[in-house]
Prior knowledge:
homodimer, Arc Repressor Mutant, subunit A, Nucleotidyltransferase, domain 5, 42% helix
Amino acid sequence: MTEKADRDQIRRQNRSIVLQALRRDGPQARIDLGRATQLSPATVTSITSDLIQEGLIAGVEDGVQKAPQKAPMARGRPRSLLALNPAAASVVAIKISVNTIDLVLADYAGRIAARERLSFDSANISGGDFVETLVGAAKAFCDANSLSDGNLLEISIAAQGVVDSSAGTIVWSPALPARNVPVVEPLSRAIGAHCMLSNDTNMIAEALHWSDPRRYGGTFAVIFIDYGVGMGLYVDNKLFVGETGAAAEIGHTNHIPGGALCRCGRRGCLEAYLGDYAILRMARDLPPSTQPEDIPVSTRTFPDLVDAAAAGKEAVLGAFHEAGVALGYGVARLAAILSPSPIILTGAGIVAYPFMEAGIRKGLEEALVEDLRKTVHIERVDWEEDLIVHGTLAQAMRRFDFEMFSEARACEPSGVREETN
Amino acid sequence: MTEKADRDQIRRQNRSIVLQALRRDGPQARIDLGRATQLSPATVTSITSDLIQEGLIAGVEDGVQKAPQKAPMARGRPRSLLALNPAAASVVAIKISVNTIDLVLADYAGRIAARERLSFDSANISGGDFVETLVGAAKAFCDANSLSDGNLLEISIAAQGVVDSSAGTIVWSPALPARNVPVVEPLSRAIGAHCMLSNDTNMIAEALHWSDPRRYGGTFAVIFIDYGVGMGLYVDNKLFVGETGAAAEIGHTNHIPGGALCRCGRRGCLEAYLGDYAILRMARDLPPSTQPEDIPVSTRTFPDLVDAAAAGKEAVLGAFHEAGVALGYGVARLAAILSPSPIILTGAGIVAYPFMEAGIRKGLEEALVEDLRKTVHIERVDWEEDLIVHGTLAQAMRRFDFEMFSEARACEPSGVREETN
């Protein structure tokens, strides 16, 4: 690597830190920005003056100082704050899940400006029809929001299942019967914007990191319990996606060799004990070989099962306990390999946590030697669908902050002196 | 983070790249160093002149040019090469394994200058006696090699089992009956040198990365099959050790809930099917609940079992197959979580690979959905005990290259201008 590249990297990083501080915490004075970012006053001044020149941020007056009850007594002039320019750019997040496509538009300050929801028939749609539906919906959404004028910076797509981010294809998803469905290429061709495909559970990890980088930093994991079981993984302060974006599929780590049938076709995956269909299969005492697609699940499955468990229904209590044990084993295997901390449990299935808790503890205890077990810290995060959208937007904005920098660099006078340290 | 820290980081990195290129590939001309490190000529010149001034490297004449058969015809003066100064520093690597302490001294050029092997009784030694033995051996070794004069830069310890690098303790090891045995503090107090404790399998990953950073870079894993089953893990081009150095314990990921008894006290760990005692237990048809310590293993266990398998002994062939299946499941679980590539198999047990191969394939196929399976790339590396020592030395040298830099910086005139990019 060259030093020039390294120094660009530092500039990008510092710019990005400033932009993210403004996006997370809103307008603030230079001095507060310095405190929040731990950059020197000189660096903050230099970076923010670049950003103002590029139109990405602007000075605004402090609203509080101008409020009526203070105005008569205000000493001196109002403090000057820095704020992101919301009009600097737009990002569209698209969330692809079973039967549903969500489209969300956010401005550069990270505020959601428009949203749209579209239904499709996950069970019966062909790959080609899905792509057509997706592209049509995205085009209509962009047109309706006048996004064809070049300030749309990215369409960031989060999809359920296994994705190949480098190829831009959905490899295998519960949302689609087809495999290897290309989405990035058709979308970027139709809209003319940069497109990016991610796994949806990874975006939950991004959302948590975005919301509180200190608490959700370092090496931590999110286990998503829902229609399926997914994982988002941060390693050393960075989202871990592996070579193709397909890594971190904890739902398809084997729990019991030759065990219950999984939706992926294998037997004994963690998901085959913990996904909604798996718990329903156990609660109804269906054979473990029952095909997942023959088990009638819906968004009501978890709440209904929780109601039945709360009413003391033995079979359901037993199913949740079994699911908890499987989850305890899964957490133990993950902890032995990576020891992420915290391990966050979320997803629609989290409402069943009280009925799984004893099972989780049992599984952990059986599966993990004490010296490793004591490092395990499990945390619950109540499920909010918008976590995925927030993470998708946060990731796209961060990418954009970096890209704008390259463009800005391209306009700089050439011949910048290369320092030889 | 401050920019100054970042710029120091770049300097350190570039210095370290230069030093490592010289250590890996031997003396070379500046121009070749530039090619090997991809640093600019100006940067190479600047860094190497610093290093010469600090006495870490020196100019040497090209030996080939001076060789008798060429000397009479030599054109012009011999090329001037740069070489590490072997006397600049020394590192001692200590390897702690069952019944054995190895001590190895290396010079700054990475060449091994002395080695010593000591026996102790792993089964019966107390924690206190072990520490006394270790410290005594280290002191005697340092004295015998005149290492008390301050140029001993680090004692780098690699131990079997679970270690806590931050606390400097061996948490749990097959080499010791005691738990939480402190080694770093007593050693550094007695010798007065910086000490560092690592897990031995991590050091195999370091050795492979050191030998060929392109092939063994990015995210890759080493599974060590021996007296136990360990793992060394690189994630995003860096050794992954987790918060305490205790991560990556794949041997104690559960394979079968409630399964065979493991040395760690849990049931069904991967090691309980793949460690030497586990295979011997299956080969002799002992119950899976047989205590590991009641199974008579030695360094002959793997070769003897391989001989028996080669002679067609059914029970042994069956045991190796079973072990292979367990390994296939283990690789599958690891691949689903991290998809490292390659996954390297090594350790004394690797001699049995031909008898495990079909089992590995069967396990992988049963445990991992095809889309994930196709990314799995397994590689065998023949077992050499010295891999651990080489990795330990390489890691210590790299750390040292960084530390020397801080010391050098401390001597620089203060008030270095902080750039505001």
